[in-house]
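Thread: quick sanity check before group meeting

JM: Hey all, I'm pulling together slides for Thursday and realized we never actually wrote out the predicted structure for the chain we discussed last week. Dropping the sequence here so it's in one place. If anyone has concerns about the input, flag it before I start.
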Amino acid sequence: MNKFIMASKAGLILLLAAVMSACGTSNTASTPASTGTAAVTTAAAQSGTTANVQLANVKAADLVTFDEEDTAVGWNADSATTVALNGTAATVTGTGATASGGTVAISAGGTYVLSGTLSDGQIIVDVQDDSSVHLVLNGVELANNDSAPVYVKEAGKVIMTLEAGTENTVTDGEVYVFADAAAEEPGAAIFSKADLTINGTGTLKVTGNYKDGISSKDDLKIVSGTIEVQAADDGMVGKDLVAVQDGNITIKAKGDGIKSTNDEEADKGIIAISGGTFDITAVNDGIQGETSLVIDGGTYSLVTGGGSANAEVKTNDEGGFAGMGEGGGMRGQAPASGGGADQAAPPEMPAADGVAGATAEAEPGAAPADSSAKASADTTTATETESASAKGLKAGSDITVNGGSFTLDSADDALHSNSNVSITNGEFEIKAGDDGVHADSLTAIAGGTMNITKSYEGIEGGDITISGGDTHVVASDDGVNVSGGNDDNAAQTTGGQDQFSGSGSGLLMISGGTLTVDSIGDGLDSNGSVVMSGGTVVVNGPTADNNGSLDYDGTFEITGGYLVVAGSAGMLQAPTDTSSQYSVAMTFTDSQEAGQLVNLQDSDGNTIATFAPAKSYRAVVISSPDLKEGGSYTLSTGGTSTGTAVDGLYADGAYSGGTKVVSFDISDSVTWLNESGVTTATQGMGGGMGGGRGGFGGGARPDRGTAGGTPPAGDDAQ
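JM (edit): ok, ran it. Output follows.
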């Protein structure tokens, strides 16, 4: 079967996903335009509903500009002002700054070179015009017991250069004393009310014992350098923007790792990352943009909420017929449990080394917790009332990933958007306590490699499009789930079960790439419809009969691509009989062993498919462009293949030694089979409960009538 392994590269990113009403019932889908470009335009979902998906390129460079000042690291000793720190005092040589005890006040634009140790003092930048201040950290140790060691009150911009070959440390205390109790500023070891840029090739180590490590109330830009942050709350914050061009960044945070918080302006609250190396351990979210998050490249290792092992235990939606076993009918076997037995309730994450106090995540813009002159971060009342969010990559609006290497281990979703997620490239290794990838609106995968080895639901969205890439999903509930509404775990989880309910208008559209699913719940689950025009889809599971490898409410129209699924028979569905590509749905009397080959050949001995299911199975669905009306075919099990298996599919080689199960001719778009031959499609629940050749196997879902296509009778038509 040499046509099952397909790939499609893509370079388009999500801008808009809208679902709108249309008249009539139309079923069309576009195919990839060419190698290197995946174009998804319009596809009908179900009767009376059309999903219109428009994609266009967006890069980090479209959202942020690094100007000459941002990247300048050089300085002239003759013109720069030097600040020599000596324990509790400082000496200033040059203009624009004064020293009084342990306080250095910079009042004019220019370059200031800092070196030495300040054991309990402060660098204050207060420039009343729009001048830029260039701070060169040339081997400094800055500490302040009750405030921010670096406090930028006002300036046009501050550029902080980490001098080559130097190590620089900044440490604050656990309790701050505020000059203005109402303002409660500063709130980080390095705190800026102006745009702040960090560049250079030296090292910066920041310990935020009070609250945040590095925080800007405007833009925060990282050009380069080695930066290590430990924080009692958030690691890095840029209210309007966080932009990273490059650098080696390590963060241990009791709140979020990196965040941008402006939720009042649509063009702010953005995180844009071009590259760099990120090692983030956070109690809450790893990288969070209040609006958009765009990543073009870089290497990411993110652990949030203690990782997936600390996720809330969830039960999947297998509660339908509790006695249904994997063989069909009442076999006395309880359904497999969801959520994973190894998942436990998340404990409080231990403090990062040298960081005191644990703080839950606060809503951006929340009122300060303590209006007194002294405050401690771990007494913040606003954060105590908020439910914890422990997602890997998170955005209030769109997440766009154009490249990068990601290792994500999250107690919650690994990627989460309250709007849209677009992945055009990148390499992902994901362990998630909840969803691997979640979007309230559209999840679009057009390229890259994604390996979700642990999740509750693998890929979820109001609509989902897959036009390229190589995607593998392991899920304790549904592998791919098209639903509607948002996924507010705190508000919509009942008894540990996700209540992300479907509106019936969603669309799963597959036009390219490869998708392999291993699920305990449904394999492909659409609370609307499915349109498949290309690509390769392989589904292993479920084994319990109260879930199905395919589960859709509307229609499943297949016009191209390769579909091979093996799983239970109790809720068996196949593509809709209005499809232009032919399909075969086979139900076995008894459960077949995992790894036992299934082979489909035509009358000339040409292999249509050879497949080794990863789990035990009692039903198989195969759809291929090689199936032709009027053709004669034989389905066999067992035997061997000399080919090479990829995700259980043999792309080449010869099949031999199998046992013929059934021979048949194709006359309808869906040919329903059991071990006696072709069976007549019927309405309702198939052969009824009890271990007949279908039990519930092969009937339409009891709650859905005939909307799921034309299911077979549980036995031969009688």
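AS: nice. The mean pLDDT is 81. The two ends are 35 Å apart (CA to CA).
JM: adding both to the slides.
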